[in-house]
Amino acid sequence: MLFSDESERVFRAGGLDAFQRHEADRVALPLPPGPFKPLLEALHRLQREDAGARAPVRIRTALVTARSAPAHERAIRTLMHWGIEVDEAMFLGGLAKGPFLNEFEPDFFFDDQTGHCESASRYGPAGHVPAGVANGR
Q1: pLDDT at residue 3 is higher than 90
Q2: 112 and 64 Cβ atoms separated by less than 8 Å
């Protein structure tokens, strides 16, 4: 949701090997933004503003993705290019997201794939965002 589904489309069309080649070939190119980039930008601004406040509101952000090495590098470089920091980054390599989210204890989790939302919803609130190729768009 943070990044476009460009890479997901490559994965669905050509499988894991095509996805890994695609990401390796484009490692220095930022990923196109997805629908939740503005939300993360707003949260990042609040974090920076609250850092100097007398009673800051503690906001933690996490990137939880099915990506793994070597495709993780493009996601990290994209965040750096955007000037956005996250507090946690979990590169799960296709593992179920729920157990990891259970340890992180998020207030909210959003994903475009219902399977990830179902896994996450066992441990906390999860919202499905019907966007991208995973949702027939």
Answers
A1: yes
A2: no
